[in-house]
């Protein structure tokens, strides 16, 4: 059995795509998963299952959400080892920064530097980004809401590529919630 985090993109923000967390927990339980928990209201769920295909699990949950709530939702599913590696490989001094200054965008597939070659990083300093394994780390000293770099990074969605961002507190909490139980 493996514990996974499901990251649902764009739910419960801006008045649209409402998915009550109790309903999301019930939905995941109904799909046969155990140990189902949610974190915050912004689209994180943790569950345990013997099925090990992250893409299949994400597609299954996406279909179930659309059937239950009537709208499509992009979903990424990641296991503890991946989430822990993302946190451990942060290229910024995470322990020295406020959580609102550091964000991770998770991608459904690897992204290459050429995808961001059009961005003049020097023009956005002190904001910075670095690529990781199917993720992008963003340092935004004034927070995401004021970040001009975040705005530019999110402009060019690639067809079929799912991207969803989380602040550093959530990144760490998902590592904790998916950790193997002793």
UniProtKB/TrEMBL annotation:
SUPFAM superfamilies reported in the protein's UniProt record: SP0830-like (SSF160379)
Pfam family, one: DUF1697
Highest taxon above the source species: Bacteria
PANTHER family attached to this UniProt entry: BLL4334 PROTEIN, DUF1697 DOMAIN-CONTAINING PROTEIN
Protein name as annotated: DUF1697 domain-containing protein
